[in-house]
Fold these 2 entries.
Entry 1:
Amino acid sequence: MSTAAWQRATLPLLILGVLESAPRHGYGVSAALVDAGLQPIKGAQLYPALVKMENDGFIAAEWEQSESGPARKVYELTDAGREELTRLREEWRAFTAAAAALGAAPAR
């Protein structure tokens, strides 16, 4: 599985993790992922994920005026989003521990 495929599969975890540190607009979320060493996320993947998480109550969005262009949505983690981030991190840790244990198993 490629890095891009893992990114798509874990996108909610990644987005919530980015928003944990500070509110950001969509481009800011994508830039933070790139700064962390991940591949750029296409808008066709990012924005539907943001809409879904907003509909699920994990993030809240507010329009912010921009001095250099049109207004843009700024996303912020909600209390439910913090709980979801904790849950997703626990699931990720369990998954990676199980995968690592399989990788460490002796050959037969």
Entry 2:
Amino acid sequence: MQNFDTKQFTNQFESMFFGPARAYAALSVDYTEKLVNAQLDAGKAYTDTGLAQLRSLLNVKDAEGLKSYMEGQQKVAKDLTERLKDDAEKVVSLQQDFVQQSQKLTEDNVKQATDTATKAAK
């Protein structure tokens, strides 16, 4: 009768299933945290801009003040467009980084599983 080595089985199960699952979960949590922080930063910036514009509008008292406010709207629109572009680029960069890290993790796990299977077959 052959003895069953539970420690070896546990180590193989850890290296083939639980370890990779934990690594992917950690990567996913890191990505989610970065994405949520980027969204919160963007939301705060847009809210601050909107509130600043409302305050500026409340300070309009005459035609000259309205003209000045309207001219300022062009700069605000330009700044918001730039901010939107930068935020979109940031999200795309985060997604690309996540995909690259996921692919590397998958490649490493496949290599490790192949090595483990080869050793077990010997």
